[in-house]
Amino acid sequence: MKTKLLLSAAPLVLALAVAAATLPGSASSAAADPGGITVIGTASVESVPDRAELSFGVESQGASAKAALAANAAEMRKLIAAVKAAGGTAVKTQSVTLSPRYNDKNEVQGFTATNTVSATIADVAKAGALIDAAVNAGANQVYGPSLSSGDVTALYRKALTAAVANARASAQVLAQAANVSLGRITAIVESGGAPSPLPFAASKGQDIASTPVEPGMQQTVATVSVTFSVS
Questions:
Q1: What's the rounded Cα separation, in Å, for the pair 79 and 62?
Q2: 8-12, 67-71, 84-88: least confident range
Q3: What φ, ψ does residue 77 adopt, rounded to 5°?
Q4: What's this model's pTM, rounded to 2 decimal places?
Q5: Coil, strand or helix: which one is 136?
C-alpha cells in the first residue's frame, strides 16, 4: 500500500512567563520558573483503500406471510452462496423483515419479505465482480461500498509520529522569534483523527467487464497539541 505524508501546522499559543514567588515567613525566594511554547501539529497519511464492505438484499412477494418468507429464504440461500464464492468474507445477516401489502381499500393483498446481508471483499479490484455475482444470484438491493484501509491503526500511528515532528518544527520557529531556546516536550494532548476520502480516484486495474468501483484515496489525519519547555 503506497502512503504519502501531508503536513500542516497551526501555532496555537506562545507563552513565555517568568515568575518569582516569596514564601510566607521566609526571606528567600523561589527560582525563576520558565514558561513554555504550545503548538498544534497536524499530519496526514494518504492510502489507497484495500477492502470494501457491501450489503445485498432480496425482496420477495407472496400471497401469504409464509409464502413470502419461504420464497425469500430460497433466494437468500443462493445469494449467500454466490457472495462467498465471489470472495466475500465476514458474511452476516443485517436484517430480516416481513410486512403486509395493502390495496387502495386498505385490504391485505399479499406480503413482502426482505433479507439483507453484508460482506467484505479484501481486494477492492474485485468489488465490482462481487456486486455482479450477487445480482446474478438474485439480489435486487445493493448498498455500498464502504471503503477502508486494512491497517488503520498503523496508518494513524504513522500520522501521529509525523504530527509531533510537525509541531516541533513550528515550535522551533516560534522559539527563534522569541529569542529563546527550545527544550524538551513537557506535555502532549492527542486530538484524534479519522480516515476520510480524498476527492480523486486511483485505478486498481479492475476487470473492465464488471461493475466499476473506484477506490480513490483516503487520508488518515492526526492532530496533537504539544508543549515544549524553553530557556
A1: 19
A2: 8-12
A3: -60, -40
A4: 0.62
A5: helix
